Amino acid sequence: MWSTTSRRVFRRFVGVVAIGVALAATSGCTVPVDAVAGISVTGDGHLLGVMMVCGHQIDGATLYVDSADVDKTVRVGSWTADRPLTPGLATWPLDSPAAGWTATRSPAPLTAKTTYTFYGWTKDNSWSSEEVSFTLADRDRLTPGKVRYDNISDNGDESAITVSIAEFKARACRNM
């Protein structure tokens, strides 16, 4: 026969375990990353989206601005690929119509002193890309053939770097 103290301890233990299981089940709800987003420019300075898909697929990309409000963003532009992007490199102009892409939200003009974020996604949220953040000043420092992206080092540190397209292709998927 159980004493009142034993039952109380047992119920507390079961309650703590139930809360722990609930927290564990809800805390890891992020979309796995299997691509790397970057930006580049054309010869006449127009912004290019750059996506290196590492192993699965990406269906589209979004450019947004983080809002001052928690959990709110302002979408600047969004593009859906006519066919899913499979492993390899894809580039397309973000400010004009592009073959193989549909602008699901036409891009708004970019403004100075604003930080933009560009990333890739899948329609079913099965995969996403590492994002890249940039300002107009960052874009203006780019030259054709160079890609700005957020590199994650072997120890997990993240920093924006600019490399050639060939180097981006060779390095972007290393930490996936």
Outline of this structure?
With 176 residues, the protein is of the alpha+beta class. It is 21% helix and 43% strand. It has two domains: 1-30; 33-171, Immunoglobulin-like (Sandwich).
Distance between the termini: 55 Å
Radius of gyration: 21 Å
The stretches of 5 or more residues where confidence is low (pLDDT under 50) are 9-28
H/E element order: HEEEEEEEEEHEEH
Count the strands? 11
Protein name: Lipoprotein
Keywords: Signal
Organism: Streptomyces carpinensis
Question: How would you sum up this structure, described in words?
Answer:
There is one protein chain. This protein is an alpha+beta fold. It folds into two domains: 30 residues; 139 residues, Immunoglobulin-like (Sandwich), CATH 2.60.40. The chain is 21% helix and 43% strand. The chain is built from three helices and eleven strands. The strands form two sheets. Strands 1, 2, 5, 8, 10 and 11 form a six-stranded mixed β-sheet that branches. Strand 3 and strand 4 form a beta hairpin. InterPro entries: TAT_signal (IPR006311). It comes from Streptomyces carpinensis. Keywords: Signal.
